[in-house]
Specification:
Layout: E1 2-4, E2 6-8, E3 11-13, E4 19-25, E5 30-37, H1 40-57, H2 62-78, H3 80-91, H4 95-112, H5 115-118, E6 123-128, E7 131-139, E8 142-146, H6 154-165, E9 169-173, H7 180-191, E10 199-201, H8 206-214, E11 220-224, H9 227-239, E12 243-247, E13 252-256, H10 262-274, E14 284-290, H11 294-306, H12 326-341, E15 345-348, E16 367-370, H13 377-380, E17 387-393, H14 396-405, E18 408-409, E19 411-415, H15 419-428, E20 433-436, E21 452-453, E22 456-457, H16 464-470, E23 472-480
Parallel strand pairs: 1-5, 8-9, 8-11, 9-10, 11-12, 13-14, 13-19, 14-17, 16-17, 19-20
Antiparallel strand pairs: 2-3, 4-5, 6-7, 7-23, 12-22, 15-16, 18-21
Helix pairs in contact: 2-4, 2-7, 3-4, 3-7, 4-6, 8-9, 10-11
The structure holds nicotinamide-adenine-dinucleotide.
Nicotinamide-adenine-dinucleotide binds at residues 146-151, 155, 173, 175-176, 205-206, 209, 224-226, 229, 232, 247-250, 281, 382, 384, 410, 451, 455.
């Protein structure tokens, strides 16, 4: 049996923890490997190595750090295919989609190679007579990243390059459901010349997460996952004095206005709802049909949902692959059952989908509900599967209110040709990432990624300028040199002049 190890102090190790967890190939339903589940002694070893590495790494000039990241970037490019294959093997998503994930992660590395530029402080000459002031941003120390199963390369790369470029050491605790990519990433950082202990991987489940949250040697925790766990991570991490950014789940709505280009809108919705089998935090799971567009929208969507090409992720001609585990498949199917019981109209039913030759794979077909209302479980829960719910509303104001009343606020979009409506939407909607005729408005690496409301706990979004702020603390320095004007002891609050 292939065992997926930790990477501590630059070395692959099975560590001290005795527990193991099965890792499946979702397309076949078979156990492909086992991952070690670390315990507190494994975390202790990683923190000790990081503490040692931090002494030199934090003193390494940003330009030198950036040069390592340039090499990381090249290695990621060269090994894109291998990384994508590792993602597909354990997550199940289509290989071409996995390649896209690697590219979006690589772009954060590219942004982080600007370390000397992004770490520049501000300088003000002559804040008072003979006195100058400047600011600098310094690393926090050891940062941990706790990541979800659905982007095993991209989400760790939202965090690690930013933490490392800014002079921190980084410990990754990936999802135990698809952990192989984390080991490849650690190997790539090492091969690029990153000193041992600066990027490490500790494998584990909730016990490892809680050990991280309580460890006094870790200064910051960057988390991405579901909302209940994000809340827990934020509460426990901050109670232990850590800086925490915890990105949670989502229920992303797209408003479809009657004046939209229906054909393009349907293309956009199908990709955004069913791509990666709906296992994306930015997936569109609710289409809000405004006025008389609803009937034609549902007709077009139902045709497309029924004709999705579903199969193993290794075949790029497929539109979507399986769900990640049998448990997740049972949960998604159960929610579809509830939707039917609670009175939604099931237009396309993906339950019971069986792929010939892959009978034990965790597959479900594309599912579409119409006439969904806000009291139904399929509206309230984040399904995280290929299930699109259509809610009908009479006008734009009701659509906007629906989104703003929803507890989540990750991504949202509007499809319209009308500038006034689009402007009213972007201005008034309560969500962190907004698209106008763009279904999945994931910000590029040089902007920052994050939601509002129950989709993010903490003060900072991920990567881009917000990532720099999260992984550094500000220091303001005020200087006066002996030759400057002196006025003797001052007992009042200093003011300029
Ligand atoms: P999850 O919350 O189950 O797991 C995330 C991480 O938390 C994993 O590393 C896991 O080991 C750990 N964990 C799980 N249960 C825990 C517990 N009880 N105590 C402590 N730690 C625990 O999420 P997932 O199923 O891996 O990923 C899917 C979720 O992530 C969805 O809700 C999705 O919306 C969300 N997500 C959000 C974003 C975003 O940017 N907002 C991005 C990707 C995924």
């Amino acid at each position: 049996m292939n065992i997926i190890p930790h990477v501590i102090g630059g070395v692959h190790t099975e560590g001290q923890g005795a527990r193991r967890s099965d890792v499946f190939n979702p397309a076949t339903g078979e156990v492909a490997s086992q991952v070690v589940l670390g315990d507190r002694s494994d975390l202790e070893a990683a923190v000790t190595a990081a503490k040692q590495a931090f002494v030199k790494w934090s003193e390494t000039p940003p330009l030198t750090r950036a040069r390592v990241l340039f090499k990381v970037r090249d290695l990621l490019e060269a090994r894109r295919d291998e990384l994508a294959s590792a993602i597909t093997a354990e997550h199940g998503k289509i290989h071409s989609d996995a390649l896209g994930e690697v590219t979006r992660g690589l772009e954060v590395v590219e942004f982080a190679t600007a370390a000397p530029e992004i770490l520049k402080g501000e300088f003000t000459e002559q804040v008072s007579r003979g006195i100058d002031a400047y600011t600098m941003r310094q690393p926090l120390g050891i940062a941990a990243g706790i990541t979800p199963f659905n982007f095993p390369v991209m989400v760790p790369l939202w965090m690690a390059p930013m933490a490392i470029a800014t002079g921190n050491c980084f410990i990754l605790k990936p999802s135990e459901r698809d952990p192989s990519a984390s080991v490849l990433l650690a190997d790539i950082f090492k091969e690029a010349g990153l000193p041992d202990g600066v990027f490490q991987v500790v494998q584990g489940d909730k016990d490892m997460v809680n050990a991280i949250l309580e460890h006094p040697g870790i200064q910051a925790v960057s988390f991405v996952g579901s909302t209940p766990i994000a809340k827990h991570v934020y509460a426990i991490g901050t109670a232990h004095g850590k800086r925490v950014q915890a990105l949670g789940g989502a229920k992303n709505h797209a408003i479809v206005m009657p004046d939209c280009d229906l054909e393009k809108t349907v293309d956009a919705l199908v990709g955004a709802a069913y791509g990666s089998a709906g296992e994306r935090c930015m997936a569109i799971s609710v289409a809000v049909a405004v006025g008389d567009v609803a009937d034609s929208l549902v007709d077009a969507l139902s045709e497309r949902a029924r004709n999705l090409k579903i199969g193993a992720g290794t075949d790029n001609s497929n539109d979507m692959g399986p769900l990640v585990t049998a448990q997740h498949l049972a949960r998604v199917s159960g929610l579809v059952d509830q939707g039917v019981e609670q009175g939604a109209t099931l237009v396309a039913d993906g339950r019971g989908f069986v792929l010939s030759g892959h009978e034990k794979g965790f597959f479900i077909g594309g599912t579409l509900f119409d006439n969904v209302t806000t009291d139904m479980a399929i509206y309230q829960e984040e399904i995280f599967g290929p299930v699109l719910c259509v809610v009908r509303v009479p006008d734009f104001a009701s659509a906007l209110k629906l989104i703003n009343d929803n507890p989540y606020g990750n991504g949202t979009a509007i499809f319209t040709r009308d500038g006034d409506t689009a402007r009213a939407f972007t201005h008034g909607v309560k969500a962190g990432m907004v698209g106008v005729n763009v279904p999945i408005p994931v910000p590029m690496a040089f902007h920052s990624f994050g939601g509002w409301k129950d989709s993010l706990f903490g003060d900072h979004h991920m990567h881009g300028p917000e990532g720099v702020r999260f992984f550094t603390r500000l220091k303001a320095v005020t200087t006066r040199w002996p030759e400057g004007i002196r006025s003797g002891a001052e007992f009042v609050m200093p003011t300029h002049g």
